[in-house]
Amino acid sequence: MIAAFALILVCQLFGEVLSELFSLPVPGPVIGLGLLFIGLLIKRKPPKELTDAADNLLMHFSLLFVPAGVGVITQIDRLKSDWLPIAASLVISTLLTIAATAFLMSKLLPKAPATPDAAAIPAISDKGAK
Fold first, then answer.
1. What is the 3-state secondary structure (H, E, C) of the chain?
2. Of 48, 46, 28, residue with least CA distance to 37
3. What is the pLDDT of residues 2-17, one digit of tens each?
4. How far apart are CA 92 and CA 88, in angstroms?
5. pTM of the full predicted structure?
6. What Å distances lie between residue 28 and 63, 67, 130, CA to CA?
7. Rounded CA gap, 67 and 54, in Å?
8. Rounded Cα–Cα distance for residues 36 and 42 (Å)
9. Could you give the CA distance from residue 91 to residue 1 in angstroms, rounded to a whole number?
10. How far apart are alpha carbons 18 and 16 in whole angstroms?
11. pLDDT per residue over 43-57, tens digit each?
12. What does the alpha-carbon distance between residue 83 and residue 104 come to, in Å, rounded to a whole number?
């Protein structure tokens, strides 16, 4: 499992190096995640050790929100002064994300077979019921 965590950290390191080297506006960990994703696509199946490490990270996922919470508390004065643009951008970005997800899902999911029209279905006559 240590090798899997090392692989994740090495991908993050390469992402940080690429981000700094080329002055990219994308954070290094995001680039590292992309590199890891490309590596997994090439390999076709993730190693068992890597899936175990990912499962362990997901079990303790809530701990990863502690630094974000601390960051929010340290910026509370800015949040108080700029709450309206922050709230507006959160609402708008959330709505845009939901719309984009719905659009992509409608394009990527297989279409359900069309249900026949009621006019196309022959009506059952009452003559046979007598």
1. CHHHHHHHHHHHHHHHHHHHHCCCCCCHHHHHHHHHHHHHHHHCCCCHHHHHHHHHHHHCHHHHHHHHHHHHHHCHHHHHHCHHHHHHHHHHHHHHHHHHHHHHHHHHCCCCCCCCCCCCCCCCCCHHHC
2. 46
3. 999 999 999 999 999 9
4. 6
5. 0.54
6. 21, 17, 78
7. 20
8. 10
9. 39
10. 5
11. 888 889 999 998 998
12. 31
Reply yes or no on whether the pLDDT at 121 is more than 80. Answer: no
**CA dist., res. 99 & res. 57, Å (int):** 30
Structure tokens at 24: 């990219």
